[in-house]
Amino acid sequence: MTLPFTLDPDVHHLNHGSFGAVTERVQAAQRALQLRMERDPMRFFTQEVLEGLNRAREALSRFVGAQPDDLVFIHNATEGVATVLGSLALEPQDEILVNDHEYGACIKACEKTAATVRKVSLPLPTTAGEIVERLKSAIGARTRLALISHITSPTGLVFPLTQILEVFERRGVPVLVDGAHAPGMVPLDLQAWGQRGLRYYAANLHKWACAPKGTAFLWIREDEQSRIHPLVTSHGHNSVWPHRTPFTTRFDWTGTDDPSPFLVVPDVLEALALLHPGGWAGVRSANRSLALEARSLLLDVLGGAPLAPADMIGSLAAVQLPEDPGAPRPHALALSALQAELDAQGFRAPVMDWPAPPNRLLRVSAHVYNTIEEYRSLAQVVAAALRREATPS
Question: Largest Cα–Cα distance of the chain, in whole Å?
């Protein structure tokens, strides 16, 4: 099958998890919408956008197991996390519980609030049971909110979300879930999770679902919606619009923007489903199988043990590397020697400083356009680079 992506064929794209990739069909649908917008902006924004958002919300609701009125579109999961944090009015005596597998930008958003941020360490290798117990033991008398990734960014682990929600619900602590990597990688059932204690869930569609960049959503349980407001107050605030709740009205218009990424969500969800005879379930299963095969291959070549059992792996996999002899680097944006070499040889696979330099992980992604031969080539390049590190001239 010829896969409908416009990725550079001379590059090994093994980092889908960071920025995604958009199919040709969706690119064309978005361009058509943008042309309509520029031909008649007045009609587009005053008569077409709100109806289009409702259609997109309906399609999304079926994909994530939610009621349409509990969903609003945002630009990325980090924005969703910041939106919830900015709405909760936490105070200095309150504590937000995070862990060291969380996305750095979301931890920084927690640190910007008035609350105290408490970070618990979750070791590697690990198991689902150990994660649940570590988080449970970290809940304190001042804990007012927990930020938990559904799938961790630096370590690529699928956390046992249902068990985590039940633990925190029993202690009366709300959970804000960063689901940045989840849609398109694992099945979602937000309505069911809401009954188990989930209150806030922010997630990207521009990663594993292959939507245009800047396509994400925020799900808020119905009883919490009156508390949550967008970061920008605009015409939707305190307005009454047809076929909308106060919650969706506040978010559906926060100023002039290009809404085409949201409006093509129905095309996004259909386009990927057509790439596998099993639909989305088949896409997810094939990607997971490839990620597990890639992890096994990398461990065979590079050595080491799995960082977590197979049931904690989705379409991301990380392996431990020896300590970086070049750490510390002069600034956060400076590439390590290994990362620079991978980039120069056409491999897009991030070397993650985790939990802090000189410790590091190699993280790979698996999507429908990847092949096992790419990971085999990557393993050989990394192995050669590590040998040179170990025997400097």
Answer: 71
